[in-house]
């Protein structure tokens, strides 16, 4: 057994100078009275009584200072014994803190990082240089200044890839009692301001877009009301015609507001990936059944082909449902009466296999990826494709399909006029799910829109499925389903 020896220096009481001053003052008083007594200015009895009184008073003050000094040493000893417990408590708090916190040492090397920081910056088990994980020159300059002992700073920075984010970095120097020429460390705290920044921008965009798009229907409603109150007050035929137009404009404003609110909700959480799970085969079947009556009104047949294997994807059920619903609704809207709309699900697929069909729908068709997932060669996807028999889209319009309020020439008015927000909503939902969104189209040949989502971990390891669409066909009212 090895005996541990600790050389402790006696605690130096901060009250020792006060006790020394008390003794010196008392001695000086006795000395002055002794001089006065020897010179005959003070009687011997007075000198003796005064000396005794001064000595007693000094003794009382000395003992008071002595008893006050003893408790002062005990807290220091208690603090020294509690220090390991305090350190453990601080480390436990740091590990559970939801805000990323890092301790940067000399040379910009990461010495400590809590779990939130490791997840936020994608740090591995090894602690390397901060510059390899955070490529922000202003933040690195602030960290270098803190390591030199200079004043801390707050730095804001933004990134656009892989997703837009806004971060505020707080840097403060910390002096440690360590040997060496560099006693300073830099504490780096990262605050994610993406949600607040997006909320501010969306509020302004919503007001600007809503005021711009609502101005025309509101002006029409105002003109019709003035006409009904004036010249057409007693004209029943004009009144019925104007009321029908007013109803159509009101319905358009309602759809526009609903789409704007939906787009705002999606953009608000686009930087946060969903954690749920959705079976894409079942979801596509539900969407087809829900839109069957809409297709029947125009004698359009919906042909649904499901994947041969389960297509369990990671995502939010309601948002993926909205994606498929928007694509199928657009296909029905732009297809002629009595035609056919095809919907099919494929899984599993690599990224290249999910983006586009193996064969082109037309030799002159244009293909474009509107939104792409992060590069991951091991990722597997399930894809839902929707093909219409509409007029098709010219190649020059493809890059703008997912822009807000963009409508192709010839689709800005009439019964097929939409709000111009449906494909923008689809793109942002797919981006939030870390999936992809592509289009292939040719004038006169229709269009194919594909949205693909990452498979759940249990499905991602399955072997690629053969091309679907070879199963038996079951005829239903207004819809064809291949299973």
TrEMBL record:
TM regions (residue ranges): 21-38, 44-64
GO terms assigned for molecular function: ATP binding; phosphorelay response regulator activity; phosphorelay sensor kinase activity; protein kinase activator activity
EC number in record: 2.7.13.3
Signal peptide, first to last residue: none
Enzyme class: transferase
Compositional bias segments (type: Basic and acidic residues): 351-362
Coiled-coil zones: none
Pfam families named among the record's database cross-references: HATPase_c (PF02518), HisKA (PF00512)
Catalytic activity: ATP + protein L-histidine = ADP + protein N-phospho-L-histidine
Protein name: histidine kinase
Upper taxonomic lineage: Bacteria, Pseudomonadati, Pseudomonadota, Alphaproteobacteria, Maricaulales
């Amino acid at each position: 057994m090895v005996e541990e020896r600790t050389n402790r220096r006696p605690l130096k009481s901060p009250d020792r100078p006060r006790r020394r001053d008390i003794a010196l003052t008392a001695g000086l008083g006795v000395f002055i009275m002794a001089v006065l007594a020897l010179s005959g200015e003070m009687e011997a009895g007075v000198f003796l009584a005064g000396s005794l009184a001064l000595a007693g008073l000094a003794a009382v003050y000395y003992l008071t200072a002595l008893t006050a000094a003893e408790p002062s040493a005990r807290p220091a000893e208690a603090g020294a014994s509690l220090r390991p417990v305090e350190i453990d408590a601080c480390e436990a708090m740091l590990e559970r803190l939801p805000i990323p916190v890092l301790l940067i040492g000399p040379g910009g090397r990461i010495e400590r990082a809590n779990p939130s920081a490791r997840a936020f910056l994608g740090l591995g088990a090894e602690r390397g240089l901060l510059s390899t994980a955070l490529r922000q020159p202003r933040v690195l300059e602030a960290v270098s200044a803190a390591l030199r002992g200079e004043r801390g700073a707050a730095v804001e920075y933004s990134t656009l890839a892989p997703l837009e984010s806004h971060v505020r970095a707080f840097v403060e120097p910390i002096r440690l009692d360590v040997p060496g020429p560099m006693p300073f460390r830099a504490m780096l705290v990262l605050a994610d301001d993406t949600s607040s920044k997006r909320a501010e921008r969306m509020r302004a965009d919503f007001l600007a877009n809503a005021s711009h798009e609502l101005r025309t229907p509101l002006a029409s409603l105002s003109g019709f009301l003035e006409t009904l109150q004036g010249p057409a007050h007693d004209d029943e035929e004009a009144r019925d015609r104007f009321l029908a137009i007013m109803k159509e404009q009101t319905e358009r404003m309602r759809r526009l507001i609903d789409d704007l609110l939906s787009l705002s909700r999606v953009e608000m959480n686009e930087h946060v990936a969903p954690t749920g799970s959705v079976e894409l085969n079942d979801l596509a079947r539900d969407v087809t059944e829900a839109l069957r009556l809409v297709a029947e009104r125009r004698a359009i047949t919906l042909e649904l082909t499901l994947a041969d294997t389960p297509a369990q994807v990671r995502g939010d059920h309601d948002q993926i449902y909205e994606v498929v619903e928007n694509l199928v609704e657009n296909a029905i809207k732009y297809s002629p009466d009595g035609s056919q709309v095809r919907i099919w699900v494929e899984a599993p697929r690599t990224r290249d296999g999910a983006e586009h069909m193996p064969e082109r729908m037309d030799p002159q068709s244009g293909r474009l990826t509107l939104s792409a997932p992060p590069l991951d060669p091991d990722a597997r996807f399930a894809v839902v494709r929707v093909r219409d028999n509409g007029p098709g889209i010219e190649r020059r319009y493809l890059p703008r399909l997912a822009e807000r309020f963009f409508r192709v020439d010839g689709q800005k008015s009439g019964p097929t006029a939409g709000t111009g927000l449906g494909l923008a909503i689809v793109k942002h939902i797919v981006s939030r799910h870390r999936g992809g969104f592509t289009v292939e189209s040719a004038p006169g040949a229709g269009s194919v829109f594909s949205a693909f989502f990452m498979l759940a971990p249990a499905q991602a390891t399955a072997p690629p499925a053969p091309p679907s669409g070879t199963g038996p066909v079951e005829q239903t009212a207004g819809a064809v389903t291949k299973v």
